[in-house]
Each structure stands twice: as C-alpha cells, then as structure tokens.
Amino acid sequence: MKKLTFNISDKVALARHVVARLDHDKFAADARGRVVAVEGAVVAVDFAGTWMPRADGGTVRCLPAANLTKIMANGGDI
Question: Is 10:70 a contact under the CB 8 Å cutoff?
Fold first, then answer.
C-alpha cells in the first residue's frame, strides 16, 4: 500500500477500513475535513461539524495518518 503524505489544507475523509470498523456509521462515512497540522504520523483535521464534535464542542481531531484518505479535486479518493 502506498504511503500517503498530507499537507496543510488537504481535503480528507476517514479511510474505508476505518468506516468499516465503525460498522459503516453514517457520521463516520460522511466525515470530511481539512488538514490543519501534520506532526509525523499524526494529522490534525478540522471536520467543521461533519463528524461528531468533542465534548467541549471542538471540531479538530488528531488522527493517525493511516486512518485518513485524501479527497482529490474530482471528488475521488486515493
């Protein structure tokens, strides 16, 4: 499997294997966000309300890069 690299402002979604592990939950399947920070293998993503907010109302989540996939300009993913 090709290792993805993420840049600030990339559009991302949760990877297919993550959505499957969450029993194809609608919130997880529809989650879309923008990368706001990259720290090695951990990526901070602002989901802006498309995924469940944290208890304090924040929308930025830090996730392993392996759990994300890029959304391309034509709407497809890699």
Answer: yes
